TrEMBL record:
It comes from Thlaspi arvense. Residues 78-92 have a biased composition (Basic and acidic residues). This is HMA domain-containing protein. Residues 62-130 are annotated as: Disordered.
Length: 130
């Protein structure tokens, strides 16, 4: 599950910020690293081990602490589901057209070609046994 973790540093000067950002970006599963200007915080997003990343960041600065851990809830884009011609039939459907009974592309695997590969495998193995 994607999550957001906010790390807070006591002293967050340029050198620590640069090293911490680089370590977080290279950490497996991290998708985004953002520095919160003026607050000494680093916001990290992705699917990663919070414990392991905290251990790595503590090698840089022992004062690092986890301030917030939460799910990465990206705002869903609003989709307009309204149709202008609601209630009308599409023009490309023919009257009385129905799917045929011998459809080979059935999704439940009961079509006539569903086990064709099995018959082929038996024929190959019978030929190899001879």
């Amino acid at each position: 599950m994607k999550k957001i973790v906010v790390f807070k540093f006591e002293v967050f000067d340029e050198s620590i910020k640069q090293i911490a950002t680089e370590v977080a970006r290279e950490f497996p599963g991290v998708t985004s690293v953002v520095d919160v200007e003026g607050e000494g915080q680093l916001v990290v997003k992705g699917e990663f081990s919070t414990f392991e990343l905290t251990k790595e960041l503590m090698k840089i600065d022992e004062s690092v602490e986890t301030v917030k851990i939460g799910p990465d809830e990206e705002p869903e884009q609003e989709v307009n589901h309204h149709r202008k011609d609601e209630g009308k039939r599409p023009n490309n459907i023919e009257e009385g057209s129905t799917p045929s009974d011998d459809d080979a592309g059935r999704s439940n695997g009961t079509g006539p070609q569903a086990y064709g590969w099995w018959d082929q495998a038996k024929a190959i193995s019978a030929g190899a046994a001879e």
